[in-house]
Amino acid sequence: FQDIYPPIGTWGIWYLPGSPAFHVAWTGVVEIVGGMGLLLSGLRDALASEDDDDDDYENENIWMINFVKPVAASVLFVLTILITPANIYMFTHGAVMGDTMAPLDMSFHGVRFAVQVVFLSLLLTLARDSFFFAWGDELD
């Protein structure tokens, strides 16, 4: 992914400190942690029974468990926005990942853009709905 990271001075405004390797590393870690948060909260929801939920609300630390999904979805939403310049650079400058990769045609970029819009919409909906359900009982 370092090959699609915009170099300093791209578009006349791209001046982030740090190397491409640094930015690829930290975004990769955030993506893995966010994905694990969604996966674990989804597994918890799938494996929990109705009776477990009543017992959980008596636990004073349950609010932390309820916020894993919305926080993970929000972090992944922001991360997707933050890495969008790399996708734009890939489109505008014909950047490819690695020397052996053939140049990508316009249809690839169109499909990638559509998938990214759907992904952002899903993350935003998941974050919003999860925050509401985590605190929905408190609002009454």
Number of strands: 0
Please mark out the parts with pLDDT under 50 across 5 or more consecutive residues, or reply none.
none
Quaternary form: single chain
**Structure annotation, total helices:** 6
Q: Which of globular, elongated, flat, extended, rod-shaped describes the shape?
A: elongated
Query: Mean of residue pLDDT?
Result: 80
Helix amount, in percent?
Answer: over 70%
Order of helices and strands: HHHHHH
Major β-sheet annotation: none
What class do helices, strands and sheet pairing give?
mainly alpha
Rg is: 19 Å
The fraction of residues in strands falls at under 5%
Distance between the termini: 47 Å
Q: How would you portray this structure in words?
A:
There is one protein chain. The chain is mostly helical. It is 71% helix and 0% strand. It is built from six helices and no strands. It starts with 19 loop residues before the first helix and ends with a helix. 11% of the residues are buried.
Offer a few descriptive terms.
elongated; 6 helices; 140 residues; mainly alpha
Structure described in brief:
The chain is mostly helical and 140 residues long. It has helices at residues 20-47, 50-56, 62-66, 68-82, 84-93, 106-139.
SSE topology sketch:
Blueprint: H1 20-47, H2 50-56, H3 62-66, H4 68-82, H5 84-93, H6 106-139
Helix pairs in contact: 1-4, 4-6
